[in-house]
Amino acid sequence: MAQEHSFDVVSDFDRQELVNAVDQARREITTRYDFKGVPVEITLDAASITLLSATDSQLRAIIDVLQSKVHRRGIDVKVLDAQKPEPAAKGNVRQMLKLRRGIAEELARDLTKRVRAAHPKVQVRTQGDQLRVVARDKDELQAVIKQLKELDLDVPLQFTNYR
User: Fold this and answer.
1) What angle is formed at CA 87 by the lines to CA 154 and CA 98, rounded to 5 degrees?
2) In whole numbers, what is the pLDDT of the chain averaged over residues?
3) Where are the beta strands (DSSP E) in the chain?
4) How far is CA 29 from CA 21, 42, 56, 58, 127, in A?
5) Per-residue model confidence as pLDDT tens digits over 70-125
6) Which helix (H) or strand (E) holds 64?
7) φ, ψ for residue 53, nearest 5 deg
8) Is the dihedral of CA 144, 146, 147, 151 positive or negative?
9) What's the mean pLDDT in 27-41?
């Protein structure tokens, strides 16, 4: 009897690395000359990052710094879902960056369809906000990983729990 092999497809990030990236970005922005005397705020919540600045251009500069720090810490920048900037008190501008975690149900269905169409010998099961891919042949699983990596998705995918 042949043994089955599997892996999980997840969309997640290391929370502590994100905290470190936000702290580094906050430190860099407070020391930059173009932000001297300007109200700048970066707040990390459980599901979002809130940015506050005086102008849109400074807000974009904050986002660039934050994205570079997040990338350096090994987190995919796709985790940050930028919302529309909105006016705040005292003429400032606020923007929310929602943190993407988990695979949405619609995306899970779409990925399942694509994998089953390309690889009929592979089984894909949805388990909450992740997918379990099972096959008898390791080569099939490697082909599925290659296929999923080639897709241009809005969420970052990681492959874990190889068995």
Assistant:
1) 25
2) 88
3) 5-10, 41-44, 48-53, 80-82, 86-87, 93-99, 123-127, 130-135, 158-160
4) 12, 10, 15, 10, 41
5) 999 999 898 998 889 888 888 889 999 999 888 888 988 998 898 888 888 888 88
6) helix 56-72
7) -155, 175
8) positive
9) 88
Comparing CA positions, the residue from 81, 73, 86, 95 lying closest to residue 23 is: 73
**What are the chain's domains?**
5-12+103-160 (3.30.70.860), 15-99 (3.30.70.990)
Instruction: Say which residues have a Cβ less than 8 Å from residue 67's Cβ, sequence separation at least 6.
Output: 77, 80
Provide mean pLDDT across the span 126-151. Answer: 88
Model confidence band, residue 1 (pLDDT cutoffs 50, 70, 90):
very low
What is the number of alpha carbons within 13 Å of residue 41 lying toward its C-beta? 14
